[in-house]
From TrEMBL:
Domain FAD-binding PCMH-type: from-to ranges: 1-184
InterPro entries found in the cross-reference section: CO_DH_flav_C, CO_DH_flav_C_dom_sf, Diverse_Substr_Oxidored, FAD-bd_PCMH, FAD-bd_PCMH-like_sf, FAD-bd_PCMH_sub2, Mopterin_DH_FAD-bd
Organism whose genome encodes this protein: Paenibacillus catalpae
GO MF annotations in UniProt: FAD binding; oxidoreductase activity
Protein name (record): Carbon-monoxide dehydrogenase medium subunit
Length: 297
């Protein structure tokens, strides 16, 4: 935070670029002194809690038109979500709910309505622990960045695995998030579910956030199983070992019991002073097992 000669804190200077290229150039010029901001809900929380210092310059990307787009292609089953789309925009879109229902449910569960009117999908993703991320991971998400050249595409899962230790992404501007609907076999039915478990539903950090999608044939044999977990300060990720185990299995008591044990063994969430790791592991395993039972019935 800047200060004047008397030591009184001053507000940062706010820039208002009109294009992604202009915003990126400002960031390149200002370096660590400049920070991109959109809804600002996460930044404000970090400043007030002392987790981050207020920068000397804020680069307001809210007026950049290309960051607000929503493009849904029914032929390819893809969707492009501008980074500045608010959680309320996503929650209230019938088209999003039809094509990407897990994302709609995730948006509904995050914070209070007044916050959802400001908070953006881009900001939720860039927090690395946002409750929208497990839902997004089900749809093979790809991040589109402006990097000062021809642009960069990066799978969300790859970015999440490197972002905590490699800060180069902070010099780029997130433009949009591309999702792809799972393909549907005509001989199967698809079952999807999203759950956020918290001490006060939408108003506190989640204990566990789970998203799943799978196909069942007439014999209740599983295919195209996709599981993602997050919550609290745990960076969300797909449960690839559990997915591999479930694909091709019959959804019965034996299978569900075994995958429950597998999740307990392999899921490694971060605990805190309020909710220990052991509780988060059991909650995650219970959620997945419960939804498998619902799908069978």
């Amino acid at each position: 935070m800047a200060a004047n000669a008397q030591g009184v804190a001053e507000a940062p200077f706010v820039w208002h670029p009109r294009s992604a290229a202009e915003a990126w150039q400002l960031k390149a010029t200002l370096g660590a002194e400049g920070v991109f901001t959109a809804g600002g809900t996460l930044l404000r929380t970090q400043w007030e809690s002392g987790l981050a210092a207020m920068p000397n310059h804020l680069i307001n990307i809210g007026e950049i038109e290309e960051l607000h787009g929503l493009e849904l292609d029914s032929e390819t089953g893809t969707g492009g979500f501008g980074a500045m789309l608010t959680l309320s925009d996503i929650r209230t879109s019938p088209q999003v709910n039809t094509r990407f229902p897990l994302l709609t449910e995730a948006a509904r569960s995050i914070a209070a309505p007044s916050i959802r009117n400001l908070a953006t999908i881009g900001g939720n993703v860039l927090s690395m622990v946002g409750d929208s991320i497990p839902a997004l991971l089900i749809y093979d998400p790809v991040l589109h960045w402006h990097d000062g050249s021809n642009g960069l595409k990066e799978p969300l899962s790859e970015w999440l695995s490197t972002a905590p230790v490699h800060a180069a992404w902070k010099e780029r501007l997130l433009i949009s998030i591309e999702l792809t609907q799972p393909t549907m076999d005509s001989n199967t039915k698809r079952f999807v579910a999203y759950h956020k478990v918290g001490r006060r539903d939408a108003f506190t950090p989640s204990v566990v956030t789970a998203a799943l999608s799978m196909q069942l044939d007439s014999d209740t044999r599983l295919s195209d199983v996709r599981l993602a977990l997050g919550g609290g300060q745990t960076i969300p990720h797909r449960l690839e070992t559990a997915e591999l185990f479930l694909n091709g299995q019959l959804a019965n008591k034996k299978t569900i019991t075994e995958v429950y044990a597998l999740i307990l063994e392999q899921y490694e969430p971060k605990g805190d002073a309020f909710v220990p790791v052991s509780y988060r592991k059991k909650a995650a395993a219970n959620l997945i097992a419960s939804e498998l039972w619902k799908a069978v019935r």
